[in-house]
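Translate structure to sequence.
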């Protein structure tokens, strides 16, 4: 694989598609499967770059759509690029904005040339083309840029989904044609909704572009869990084995274990950071709602198996007090914990793949999170 991005598969499971690898970028190496904390607007909420490093992050995700609106990609370029702007010296992947524009609903109009929409910031009429999406990401100076795609909801019909797929492929080709920055690699995005043949056709069409990596998008947008699993596995298996595979916007702890077993290498999701702000904390025993009254006098750590600062130093009672007091310190500690849990889970997944024990890890996580526990009691000796 030529270019600034290199991907080496270290081990592959003989029983599944699971594999471990090393993704080498201009800003460092990432062990895969890997989880990317979401820093949509050039910051993972409540976390500084040293805190992210301590939690185990090696690559982060940001969003070109939002940064293009505010403060503007040209301003970030003039200030030295996104790495310098946010003080993060590791790899950065940026989403192009297809999902964000999809979420604007009535504020957007999609044509062959691109997407016309009204800015959610100030209502200004704007236009995002595939070429502009690449230009923004090149201004940011990121390691991995995503091609602009067309996303449809889980309830979209076959004709609408097929049209969106074909347009996504044409847009990916246009993105590849204009990419000029030597340090940025372009990933294409497989679409196709819940239709198996469209997913396979999408994967084949994108593979013909010979891109450095590929993503699967348009999942976790309302489809049921069996459909998510069926389509996710199918799309993953259809992509080139020698390129990194990225499952976008997924997911729960069980989703990560299962999708790593299909052969995905990269993941992102807002769940650990958003749930931290809502007081929903992930532990080895399941989900904890820290605001619940049962934690007000609990001297135990949130999770004795977790190495994060919060679990090493303070109690559930303290975290509950901070949440009920609406103190931002609590949001920071909750975020540190949830990201440490997620990133630690990825380390356990890599180890399980190497030791051929991924099935046992899946059963352990399923026991704790499927169905999600309402509130896990603190462990007792």
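Result:
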């Amino acid at each position: 694989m030529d270019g600034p991005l290199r991907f080496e598969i270290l081990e592959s499971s003989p029983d599944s598609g699971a594999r471990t690898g090393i993704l080498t970028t201009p800003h460092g190496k990432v062990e895969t499967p890997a989880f990317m904390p979401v820093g949509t607007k050039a910051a993972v909420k409540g976390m500084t770059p040293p805190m992210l490093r301590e939690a185990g992050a090696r690559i982060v995700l940001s969003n070109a759509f939002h940064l293009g609106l505010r403060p503007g990609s040209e301003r970030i370029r003039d200030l030295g690029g996104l790495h310098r702007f946010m003080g993060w010296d590791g790899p950065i992947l940026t989403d192009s904005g297809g999902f964000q524009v999809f979420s604007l609903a009535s504020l957007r109009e999609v044509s062959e040339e691109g997407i016309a929409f009204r800015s959610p910031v100030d209502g200004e009429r704007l236009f995002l083309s595939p070429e502009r999406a690449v230009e923004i990401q090149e201004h940011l100076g990121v390691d991995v840029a995503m091609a602009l795609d067309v996303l449809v909801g889980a309830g979209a019909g076959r004709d609408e989904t097929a049209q969106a797929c074909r347009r996504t492929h044409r847009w990916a080709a246009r993105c590849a044609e204009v990419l000029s920055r030597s340090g940025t690699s372009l990933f294409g995005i497989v679409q196709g909704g819940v239709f198996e043949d469209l997913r396979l056709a999408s994967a084949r069409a994108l593979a013909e572009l010979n891109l450095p990596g590929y993503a699967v998008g348009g999942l976790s947008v309302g489809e049921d869990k069996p459909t998510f699993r069926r389509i996710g596995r199918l799309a993953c298996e259809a992509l080139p084995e020698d390129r990194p595979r990225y499952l976008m916007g997924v997911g729960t702890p069980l989703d990560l274990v299962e999708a790593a077993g299909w052969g995905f290498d990269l993941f992102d999701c807002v769940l650990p950071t958003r749930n931290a702000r809502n007081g929903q904390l992930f532990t080895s025993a399941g989900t904890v709602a820290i605001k619940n009254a049962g934690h007000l006098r609990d001297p135990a750590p949130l999770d004795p198996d977790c190495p994060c600062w919060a679990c090493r130093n303070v109690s559930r009672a303290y975290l509950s007090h901070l949440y009920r007091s609406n103190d931002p310190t609590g949001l920071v500690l909750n975020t540190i914990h949830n990201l440490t849990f997620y990133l630690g889970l990825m380390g356990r997944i890599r180890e399980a793949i190497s030791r051929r024990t991924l099935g046992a890890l899946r059963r352990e996580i399923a026991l704790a999170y499927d169905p999600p526990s309402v509130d896990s009691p603190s462990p007792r000796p």
